């Protein structure tokens, strides 16, 4: 491995510090750190190291603390995360141990000079010699076993019982790359042939009408016709939103929390509807517009607070409303492992209050006979079936529309998909029809 292997390791250590010490989202932390890395393999390695450490942080943090006599603080704090990433690599075994040590020592010298390079060299070589004994002495705690904070483990166990261990394990798996074929410009069989011509193997998935799953992940730029709008990246569970809406040409539809726009685009690919894309974040709403333009689609994009319709609604009811509500995002932890460390126990009640406000504000905008679909990428009952149950109880003119699907199971009310089921992310759906 060339000496410049130090640069992605430096970037990973800096990003991990921003996430775990400062509470920054990983994608936000990585953006300025990845730009100076010229080679795609360096950017890929940086992201892979961050994901690996975040999935196993309690164990790695403990192992570093056992090998360093005094806690690393202040300017040297980044070395704690550099060591965690290196120990993760040594355990993973994907790269030769001498190469990992060499690149990590070079990264430490760049961060803090010769002395810190010597410290990292000593710690990693010592870990290599004592690895078996150290791993055998790891604390037998739920956090170390599963790689999650204790409160979240307890919440998942409380809500999912016998399924909890499988849910936690699925959250630590590397997810596949799901594609959504734009049926206005191609079809699943046609696009699969394009992939095959490019040397990319993909499989159709029964029950997911517009989906392909790649056998191996590739960079977006390698997908044929991506810039021409033939295909988008979207997990299978998220693609089921369009099915829940019972779309037909001519309907007036609202995507109430539209950004980043994947479900909005799928709605327009499925049917020729009058779509309004609403989001409270103006910058994220611009991404929705750019995404639709790439796909050759168009919608009315409005910046506004969905809980305050008087600020943006024209008074005309909607036939369909999708409420893809802000949530804990605990169902997509396998794609965003930083979520487990950024969420706090008190977040659930706050998010549930926002979800309730959205549902109660938007329900009067549904035309009698129309359908509202409530969706989250959460695993927490308070955000999912409990929230939907309370909504149905508050509104006598709301009748649950029974739904099923190619993944997941029925709840009371709604439908829950757990991460790993048919290789999907975790997702929840509940559909309600407004009675006359």
Question: How is this structure best described in words?
Answer:
- The protein has three domains: 3-139, NusB-like (N-utilizing Substance Protein B Homolog, Chain A, Orthogonal Bundle), CATH 1.10.940.10; 178-233, Sun protein, domain 3 (Alpha-Beta Plaits); 236-434, Vaccinia Virus protein VP39 (Rossmann fold), CATH 3.40.50.150.
- The chain contains 18 helices and 13 strands.
- With 436 residues, the protein is α/β, with parallel strands linked by helices.
- 46% of the residues lie in helices and 14% in strands.
- Helix 5 crosses helix 7.
- The strands form two sheets. Strands 5, 6, 7, 8, 9, 10, 11, 12 and 13 form a nine-stranded mixed β-sheet that branches. Strands 2-3-1-4 form a four-stranded antiparallel β-sheet, covered by helices on one side.
What are the SSEs and their pairings?
Blueprint: H1 6-20, H2 26-34, H3 40-55, H4 57-67, H5 77-92, H6 97-112, H7 114-136, H8 142-146, H9 150-160, H10 164-170, E1 178-181, H11 188-197, E2 202-204, E3 211-214, E4 231-233, H12 236-239, H13 241-244, E5 252-255, H14 262-270, E6 274-279, H15 282-294, E7 300-303, E8 318-324, H16 339-342, H17 347-362, E9 366-376, H18 385-394, E10 398-401, E11 409-410, E12 415-417, E13 427-434
Parallel strand pairs: 5-6, 5-8, 6-7, 8-9
Antiparallel strand pairs: 1-3, 1-4, 2-3, 9-13, 10-13, 11-12, 12-13
């Amino acid at each position: 491995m060339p000496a410049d292997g130090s640069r992605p390791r430096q970037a990973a250590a800096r990003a991990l510090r921003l996430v775990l010490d400062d509470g920054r989202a990983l994608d936000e932390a990585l953006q300025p750190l990845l730009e100076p890395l010229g080679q795609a393999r360096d950017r890929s390695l940086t992201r892979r190291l961050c994901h690996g450490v975040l999935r196993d942080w309690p164990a790695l943090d403990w192992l570093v603390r056992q090998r360093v006599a005094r806690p690393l603080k202040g300017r040297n704090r980044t070395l704690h995360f550099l060591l965690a990433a290196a120990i993760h690599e040594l355990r993973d075994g994907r790269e030769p141990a001498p190469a990992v040590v060499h690149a990590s020592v070079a990264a430490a010298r760049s961060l803090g000079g010769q002395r810190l390079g010597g410290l990292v060299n000593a710690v990693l070589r010592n870990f290599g010699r004592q690895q078996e004994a150290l791993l055998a002495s790891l604390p037998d705690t739920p956090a170390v076993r599963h790689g999650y904070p204790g409160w979240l483990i307890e919440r998942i166990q409380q809500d999912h019982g016998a399924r909890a261990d499988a849910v936690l394990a699925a959250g630590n798996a590397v997810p596949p790359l799901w594609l959504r074929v734009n049926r206005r410009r191609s079809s699943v069989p046609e696009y699969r042939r394009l992939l095959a011509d490019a040397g990319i193997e993909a499989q159709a998935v029964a029950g997911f009408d517009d989906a392909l799953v790649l056998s191996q992940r590739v960079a977006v730029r390698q997908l044929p016709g991506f810039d021409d709008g033939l295909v988008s990246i979207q997990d299978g569970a998220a693609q089921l939103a369009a099915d829940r809406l019972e779309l037909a040409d001519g309907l007036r539809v609202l995507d109430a929390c539209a950004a980043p726009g994947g479900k909005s685009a799928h709605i327009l690919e499925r049917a020729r509807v009058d779509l309004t894309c609403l989001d409270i974040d103006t910058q994220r709403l611009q991404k929705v517009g750019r995404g639709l333009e790439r796909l050759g689609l168009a919608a009315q994009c409005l910046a506004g607070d969905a809980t305050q319709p008087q600020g943006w609604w024209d008074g005309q009811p909607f036939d369909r409303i999708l409420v893809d509500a802000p949530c804990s995002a605990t169902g997509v932890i396998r794609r965003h492992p930083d979520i487990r460390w950024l969420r706090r126990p008190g977040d659930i009640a706050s998010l549930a209050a926002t979800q309730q406000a959205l549902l109660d504000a938007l329900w009067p905008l549904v035309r009698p006979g129309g359908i509202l679909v409530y969706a989250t990428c959460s695993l927490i009952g308070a955000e999912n079936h409990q929230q939907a149950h309370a909504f149905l109880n508050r509104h006598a003119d709301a009748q649950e529309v029974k739904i099923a699907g190619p993944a997941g199971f029925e709840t009371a009310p709604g439908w829950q998909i757990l991460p790993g089921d048919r290789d999907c992310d975790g997702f929840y759906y509940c559909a309600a029809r407004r009675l006359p």
